[in-house]
Amino acid sequence: MIENKFPGKDISEDDIKNKFPLAAKKNEQHKSILNINGHQIGGNNLVIFAGPNMVESEKLIIQTAQSVKENGAHFLRGGAFKPLTFPYRSEKYNETREDGLKWLKKAKEETGIGIVTEIMEERYLDLICETADILQIGSRNMQNFPFLTACAKTQKPILLKRHYGASLRDWLGAAEYILYEGNKNLILCERGVSVPHTHRDTSRFLLDLQVIPAIKEISHLPIISDPSHATFWSPWVQSMTLASVAAGADGIMLEVHPDPKNAAVDPLQPIDFNEFKVLMEKVSKLKKAL
Ligand code: PEP
Ligand code: MN
Q1: Which amino acid residue places its CA nearest to atom 9 of ligand 1?
Q2: Closest ligand to the CA of 49
Q3: Whose CA is nearest to atom 3 of ligand 1?
Q4: CA distance 143 to 137
Q5: Cα separation values, 168 from 8, 142, 176, 189, 254, Å
Q6: What are the residues facing 40 on neighbouring strands?
Q7: Ligand 1 center to residue 139 CA distance, Å?
Q8: Inter-residue contact 215 to 259 (CB < 8 Å)
Q9: Which residue ranges have their beta carbon within 6 Å of ligand 1?
Q10: By CB atoms within 10 Å of each CB, which of 148, 173, 256, 284 scores lowest?
Q11: pTM of whole model > 0.90?
């Protein structure tokens, strides 16, 4: 009989030893503390990733980089290459892919902030690696195994978002593909899971707060939370950010836009510059209290 690690969960001691030995903790104290662009991730401090959903223009990204950095962000997020649900792209998107990377690079040169941006196809790896300090592998590519391997081989730090339909077991399996290539700079990101029918009135996705302590129990990897994608609704971002910090997240990813209502993609989810500032003050107080 294989003993389960958690009540009612599908992870066994055998999985931990044989399916994801590299992602699993070796002992209670085992904890990976990464150092990326001079920032510790997985240590005692909370790492903040903030920025727009999409890199819409040079002005927008530079202005956002300055504002979020000034108010406590450690990394600028923003998609130049984006997984859009429907193929009917705005003209803005068609213009911004390669240019978006250039604008991100410029934002880094002007502010010194590190860059996390999504990679969707292996053929863009060299190009995106020139700009990104951290490669974001989005929810939709979490189980694209040859792609995970190709990204891992670059030895660039990787942010692996959880697929919204993936179990913790699936997610750690995907993480193992990256660690297996000798790439130890891996951060996990919870971004909301598919909503059961009982919760469809409230949410597009459901932030799985419990996965944070679950990861901490099984794995040494740092885990961050993305309440913007999980809630899809900016009025709830503040409380779910604070809840994620209380649950033990090592960092938070937030969508921040100077003019959320007019954001090119997903205008319901970003918070504005002032909301970000206020939230960072609350986060800092909460972190101290904890
Ligand atoms: C994003 O971070 O912009 C994104 C597309 O996220 P996800 O892959 O979690 O949907
Ligand atoms: Mn998005």
Answers
A1: 139
A2: 1
A3: 53
A4: 10
A5: 13, 12, 12, 12, 22
A6: 35
A7: 6
A8: no
A9: 53, 79, 83, 138-140, 161, 191, 229
A10: 284
A11: yes
